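Suppose you are handed a protein chain with no further information: no name, no annotation, nothing but its sequence. What can you learn? This example shows the usual starting point.
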Amino acid sequence: MRRKFYLAFILSMGIVSAVSCGSDGGASIIPDAPVKGEEEETPSEGALKNGPYKIGAAVNVNLLRNNETYRNTVINEFSSITAENAMKMRYIWTGEDEFDFTDCDFLVNFAENNGLRVHGHCLIWFKNPPDWLITKYGDNDDPEVWKGLMKKYISTVVRRYKGRIASWDVVNESVSNSDKTPYFRVNESNEDNNDIWYEKIGEDYIKLAFQYAREADPDCLLFYNDYGMEWNNFKHDNILDLVNRLVKDGAEIDGIGLQTHTDVSRNVSHIENAIRDAGNTGLMVHVSEMDVDLFVDDYTGPVTQELLQQQSDRFAAASRALLNLPSNKIFGLTIWGVSDNQALTSEGDQYSLLFDENYQPKLAYYGIASTFPSESEE
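A reasonable first move is to predict its three-dimensional structure. Written in structure tokens, the prediction is:
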């Protein structure tokens, strides 16, 4: 049986709850895109909703449709959403001329009806390309063919949501975990980690992907997204080298996403330094997929107040580091999930997120809110 724990709001922290978000009576309701009703109870505090920057969650479309408490937590607590899987190529591009936008449309409609920003994730990723794409084109080594395929996909998807999706992770995780030259995902020891777009087109695919996205939506913010800057020194350096070269080469890049999947053993200074160094590129910074596991290695519990405080300290460190950036360079902080039972590492009982299994806010929730400047400081 999964352990359950409950957290009370600590009044001494002085956190003031924000006003709950209700439905807009003047908005036209798009079918299959629910909004929160005035009469419905809110499951938590609302303290992050109107923070000094956008705070978001990665969301599961099936849970948005079918779990009222989950849905209301998203509406009441967050100002931005990212699709966990619904906007990945494998789930959209079902055949060469076949696109399934069912879940994407639902998510965008849901966001518009509830005043939420949408961050698109992700256009090009080495992982799990559609089966039909590999079957039909896997043996074709003509870079022009693969450029055409990439342009067709990016153009189709980004144009469909032009003006409705605020930003996209254009390229995701192209930098290898290994310390090697070139530092891209090619000739990996585990062949499942190879990047077919790099193999077929070369490094230029990254700049081209940004170009195609910009052509499809000139006003959309475009991000390079990756993980490891807070724990892997050579990956830290290689990600920064990549984005700095993209900027120097005139690529249509607006920001850098730091996934920040981490745990309580990570020194808070490592998180702060990664965000600071990303900001030094001059690009916007998005802490894009943050979660903080409570347990390290083979340790499995129990959950203690000390662990919960350590988790809170790491979420707070990310928020403080963002607030130390120029305000026009802060894109936001996105949590990779809503409640602990839907976390990326939930099968390991890691309790990685801001809300417990009963959708009650944890110390980590208040840790982020505690970093917000008071009205007198603004």
